[in-house]
Amino acid sequence: DVVMTQSPLSLPVTLGQPASISCRSSQSLVYSDGNTYLNWFQQRPGQSPRRLIYKVSNRDSGVPDRFSGSGSGTDFTLKISRVEAEDVGVYYCMQGTLWPRNFGQGTKLEIK
Amino acid sequence: QVQLQESGPGLVKPSETLSLTCTVSGDSISSSFWNWIRQPAGKGLEWIGRIYTIYTSGSTNYNPSLKSRVTMSVDTSKSQFSLRLTSVTAADTAVYYCARGEHDFDFWGQGTLVTVSS
After folding, report:
1. Chain B contact for A44, CB < 8 A?
2. What is the pLDDT of residue B53?
3. Measuring CA to CA, which residue among B64, B66, B63 is closest to residue B49?
4. CA B15, B7, A92, B60: dihedral to nearest 10 degrees?
5. Looking at beta carbons, which residues of chain B come within 8 Å of A100?
6. Are B32 and B79 contacting, i.e. CB atoms less than 8 angstroms apart?
7. A50 at the B interface (CB within 8 A)?
8. Nearest alpha carbon to residue B113 among B20, B45, B23, B13
9. B3 contact A CB<8A
10. What distances in angstroms separate CA A98 from CA A13, A40, A69, B102, one per listed residue?
């Protein structure tokens, strides 16, 4: 199975400051159709996961533009330009290229 | 707006079978891919498997870690798909989510907690 490794696992951030989460896969996530199916999810406390980013860098409807995704191949990053209180939660990367689908361990973002 | 709603028993005895149903609204269950994902308390997300009826009467892909115990099915007339997990143990205690998507999961249900205990 492909291994998805996130870092850091804990991310204390001051309000208004930027934040960055890394996700590395043990194999290339480029699919046969040329797309790279790397997604980012946010899970607020007590809620279901919510997709933020799909195919590396495409922001979902309603997701603030302070969230951005980048990367290629095996190395990906989620950035929040200015953290707000509502961003508290756990962030997961997930690969949709290989079998079985799987997620990173999660990064817990908290406000300092 | 696509909506998914999980339902089923919240308590299952060890060695018995866990059965859950996901009801879909706002989309045709015949036109997409439907997944089950679970999350033990305080832990990460584990993909269980998926089912779809695009070009088929019901094809499935399962996580190899659970494959021997998992069966998924779909009832297009009710716009529902289901999960059966046999021979459950305490390790199967988790919140179970259903979600839509082939390579990514854009809509999720609210989740349902299943506890395995005698």
Report:
1. no
2. 85
3. B63
4. 70
5. 47, 61-65
6. no
7. yes
8. B20
9. no
10. 33, 16, 20, 11
- Give the pLDDT of residue A51: 98
CA distance A9 to B5: 30
Would you call A54 and B106 a contact, using CB atoms and an 8 Å cutoff?
A: yes
Q: CB-based contacts of A67: which residues, under 8 Å, 6+ apart?
A: A40, A52, A53, A59, A78, A79, A80
Query: Which residues from chain A sit within 8 angstroms of residue B97, using beta carbons?
Result: 48-49
* Residue whose pair of structure tokens reads 């509502």 in the numeric block: A86
Partner residue opposite B104 with nearest CB, options A96, A100, A102: A96
Cα–Cα distance list, A43 to A12, A92, B81, B102, B104 (Å): 16, 8, 24, 20, 15
Q: Across chain A, what does the average pLDDT equal?
A: 98
Cβ–Cβ below 8 Å for A49 and B47: no
pLDDT tens string A49-76: 999 999 999 999 999 999 999 999 999 9
Distance, CA of B71 to CA of A75 (rounded, Å): 34
Are A42 and A91 within 8 A, CB to CB?
A: yes
The two tokens of residue B40 are 């033990």
Q: Is A48 close to B108, i.e. CB distance below 8 A?
A: yes
